[in-house]
Design brief:
Elements lengths: L2 E6 L3 H13 L4 E7 L3 E3 L4 H6 L6 E3 L8 E5 L2 E5 L4 E4 L3 E3 L2 E4 L3 E3 L9 E3 L3 H12 L6 E5 L3 H13 L4 E5 L9 H15 L2 E3 L10 E4 L3 E3 L2 H4 L10 E3 L4 E2 L2 E6 L4 E3 L11 H20 L12 E5 L5 E6 L5 E7 H24 L11 H5 L1
The structure holds flavin-adenine dinucleotide.
The site of flavin-adenine dinucleotide (FAD) has 37 residues, from helix 1, strand 2, helix 2, helix 4 and helix 7.
Length: 370
């Protein structure tokens, strides 16, 4: 009997999961990928789009998906976990197993002042792109939030539109996640590019446009379905990525919060969405084969920040994401960052061609001992 697996969300985690499932199940599974857009969005390049460096970064699914994955374009409105049905606006899909990979959205999408735009997903980023393009020479832009995305957006704007005054509000410091030294390096590079960095809201001048980059919240689908979520709306899953009480619902990517030691060091990011997607597929495959699923064991290797097209910072990190002393800067760092962005698509397409080929780094050593 063929079992039906529905993967909801065709981003980094969902495409990885769908490809691995289709490729490794040797016909035992029918794999359906549900996504609300007909094309894959490279979210990690949305700051480039917002600043005007490139068109909306989309990739046809035909270039990424295993031929055994059936794509259904439509927005899922509810998961009926008890009835094992995914409800879309105009149809329903039954499932034996569901992989929840609906990702995240920019916080500005639901919170904050109406005149502020954000760039967390495709449509808001396209609005930001249009607003930036409409700014006359000499206009001032404020980027609010100086994590990875804020740093990358401010640098990209400054490089692409040298005629604009670019301000960055870094209330908690620049690039804290890069560690104290990495953050200082990032701030110095931004200042050299001509970005004015503010640490205090009161020093801000009047600006013509504000772009928010203050973090992500989980997609709303899990909460809308009455499934257990954390404060950021992320689906709560155990260390084996299964939802307690609904073992046939498995989660991956930004939209899930992995509870317990397996997830304590994890943060949202494409760097984790790929391993989580692959592990979610392995968990489903184990259940189908009647084997106990393994606990997630995934760690970080690098943090990569672009500073426009010709500069960047590559920070080596420990598996728990804490900074090591080694970092790369300048053009070589920009080249590595570009390679890392491209490698995400290579990993997805590679998993379609060679099922099971995607590998990832192990998590912190204490994890293995617990
Ligand atoms: C500007 C920017 C730069 C970034 N740079 C980096 C970086 O350098 N490194 C890094 O690690 N991370 C980076 N990130 C974060 C990274 O993009 C996310 O962590 C990653 O996209 C998460 O992958 P995902 O598969 O979980 O979710 P997503 O990529 O968001 O995919 C989720 C998919 O589900 C779809 N979907 C959502 N709800 C529904 C629904 N109800 N029905 C149907 N479909 C639905 C969405 O349209 C989307 O296609 C960046 C993000 C941004 C915005």
């Amino acid at each position: 009997m063929t079992l039906q697996v529905v993967v909801v969300g065709g981003g980094y985690a969902g495409v990885m999961a769908a490809n691995r499932l289709a490729g490794r199940s040797t016909g035992a599974l029918e794999v359906v990928l549900v996504n609300d857009r007909p094309e894959f969005v490279e979210r990690i390049r949305l700051h480039e789009h917002a600043a005007g460096t490139r068109a909306l970064p989309t990739v046809p699914y035909a270039r990424l998906l295993h031929p055994g994955v059936r794509l259904e374009v439509g927005r899922a409105v509810r998961i009926d976990a008890d009835g094992r049905r995914l409800v879309l606006a105009d149809r329903e899909l039954g499932f034996d197993h569901l992989v929840y990979a609906a990702g995240s959205v920019g916080r500005g999408a639901t919170q904050g002042a109406a005149e502020e735009l954000e760039i967390g997903t495709a449509e808001p980023a396209a609005r930001a792109h249009a607003a930036v393009a409409a700014l006359p020479p000499g206009a001032a832009v404020l980027v609010r939030g100086a994590g990875h995305t804020g740093i990358e957006l401010a640098a990209e704007l400054r490089q692409r539109r040298a005629d604009l005054a670019v301000h960055l509000l870094a209330r908690d410091g620049v690039g804290r996640v890069l560690g104290p030294r990495g953050g200082q390096v990032a701030e110095a590079r931004l200042r050299r590019l001509g970005v004015t960095v503010h640490h205090d809201e009161r020093t801000l001048p009047p600006v013509d446009l504000t772009l928010r980059t203050v973090g992500f919240t989980g997609a709303t689908l899990a909460a809308d379905s009455g499934l257990p979520v954390d404060d950021a709306g992320r689906l709560l899953v155990g260390g084996d990525l299964r939802v307690p009480g609904y073992p046939y619902v498995v989660g991956a990517g930004d939209g899930v919060h992995v509870t317990g030691p397996a997830g304590a060091h994890l943060r949202m990011g494409c760097a984790m969405a790929l391993p989580l997607g692959a592990h979610a597929a392995d968990v489903v495959l184990a259940m189908v084969a009647g084997r106990p699923p393994q606990r997630l064991d995934a760690g970080f290797v690098l943090q990569c920040v672009s500073l426009g097209r010709g500069d960047g910072i590559i920070q080596l990190v420990r598996p728990d994401d804490s900074a090591r002393s080694v970092r790369l800067r300048g053009r070589p760092a920009a080249a590595v960052k570009e390679l890392v962005c491209r490698s995400t698509l290579w990993s997805l397409a590679g998993e379609a061609r060679r099922p099971g080929s995607f590998r990832w780094a192990a998590g912190p050593r204490e994890l293995a001992r617990r």
